[in-house]
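For reference, the entry.
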Amino acid sequence: MILFEERKYFINKLVLSMLLVLLGVVLAGVYQQVVNDIPFGAQPLSDTALVVVSLMPFTLLLMMFLISMKVRMDETGLFFRIIPFQRRYHVYYWEEVACVCLKHYDGSSEIKVPFGSNTKGCKGLQLVLKDGNKIFFSSTKTEELAQVLKQLSVKGIVRTEAEAEEK
């Protein structure tokens, strides 16, 4: 049974606005040169090249909306994958985890951040593996995460940082 699930998209407002402006300029150039037969710029590209160039910002925009990271937790572990690049989930089983906690990620290098796991915000879940590695997953649902961690801790499935320090 899935206890927690979150899907995060790689949409950055600044990059999105810059790509929209670039797409607007390129499309205006395509319209001016291809439809109105007026050269676009001092050294205009051929019509075909201009249309191909206009596909680049459109493709980047499309990728921003299609690429996402899906994270889920159940009683066996934490699963994540980056859609559409990974078909299967990568798993951290709770047996591999020494302790878990909610953290505020400050960018320190001691924590490994899997590609895409810090897409939104700097609050999230930190896993401390038994081999000493620390892995961080950002989340916009920290309250829900806290409830799930409490639930898993009560069942004895995971140890929180406070429990790990007591032993």
